[in-house]
Amino acid sequence: MAKLDLKSAISKNVKSSLNNAFSSTENIKQHIVVLDELRSWIPEPTEEENKQLELNIVANGCRDALTLWETTQHEIDPDSTNPDEPAYVLVDGHNRYRICKARNISFNIQLMDFADLKSVKDFMIDLQLGRRNLTPQQIHYFRGLRYLNEKNQKGRYDRIEDEKPTAEAKVAKAKATSTAEKLAQEYNVGKNTIIRDSEFAAGVERLAPDLKKKVLSGAVKVDKGALQKVGKMPSEAAIASIEELESLAIGNQNKTETPVAEKKSTAKAKAQLELTGFMENLLSGKPLTRARLDQLILKANVLKELL
């Protein structure tokens, strides 16, 4: 009789544990947090791809577990009134989650522990770069995001042009170089490719959501150089059209070229003034020597190069 009671007690405890685990899992599912910042990194499936994914899930269920970051409200919202409350951030499976919610289909979850949001971003970027169906634009974008993510984590060491480099700026530039070199080795590309990818990614981040989706999917063709130029500019309102993007890029180029044109104009005026003064000096009656003639020719050639 005692054995039967023991067996019954064990059975009750197992059932209770399973029920508690199920309740805990279901509770987590009801409190999944989707961060717009992370969702925007997920390539939008084409209409055909989305339809096929939905058909597969309806027919076979959601076979792959959704990946969640188990953290606290403070990590995702420093101003949260409940900083220690658990938070479960969706990391992988955004499209599956959307379909399951809309169709009321059950799904499994996998909890993962990350040190911080930066670690989550690194994981997501590597996950996306591991996919086989990325467009060239998406590859440039994710490699560039990885660089920007690493760079900003170390303390924002953007290049400052036309300023005398300080000791701090030199250290910052060295860090940026080391980050680019590290990622270049990791992705088997050149260091300059990583830098250009980061400028491209910064430009893409300036685009309005709909335009960004079209550019990354390849549906809309855009000059990569224009995005790189815009990526170097101070952040402003979202760019909603290709025309606006090109206008900003051209405007920035003109601003960059203006000081060069001004310097050339100043140098030309100076050379012209020196040549005129030297010729007047020659015509004043002083003897014409070979050395003075050589000086005249030299000053004339300087002005000729500037015309």
Give the distance, in angstroms, between the N- and C-terminal Cα atoms: 111 Å
Count of DSSP-assigned helices? 13
Mean pLDDT, as a whole number?
81
Low-confidence region ranges = 14-19, 155-164
Strand order of the largest sheet: 1-3-2-4
Could you give the order of the helices and strands? Answer: HEHHEHEHEHHHHHHHH
What is the share of helical residues? 55-70%
Topology readout:
Layout: H1 2-29, E1 32-33, H2 36-39, H3 47-60, E2 66-72, H4 73-76, E3 86-92, H5 94-103, E4 109-112, H6 117-129, H7 136-154, H8 167-187, H9 191-204, H10 209-217, H11 224-231, H12 242-282, H13 290-306
Parallel strand pairs: 1-3, 2-4
Antiparallel strand pairs: 2-3
Overview of the molecule:
- Helix content is 66%, strand content 7%.
- It has helices at 2-29, 36-39, 47-60, 73-76, 94-103, 117-129, 136-154, 167-187, 191-204, 209-217, 224-231, 242-282, 290-306; strands at 32-33, 66-72, 86-92, 109-112.
- The longest helix is centred in the last third of the chain and has 41 residues, at 242-282.
- It contains 13 helices and four strands.
- The protein is elongated.
- Helix 6 (117-129) runs antiparallel to helix 7 and helix 11 (224-231) crosses helix 12 (242-282).
- It has a four-stranded mixed β-sheet.
- The protein is an alpha/beta fold and 307 residues long.
- The chain has three domains: 20-115, Alpha-Beta Complex (Conserved hypothetical protein from pyrococcus furiosus pfu- 392566-001, ParB domain); 134-241, no CATH class; 259-306.
- The N and C termini lie far apart (111 Å).
- The relative contact order is 0.06.
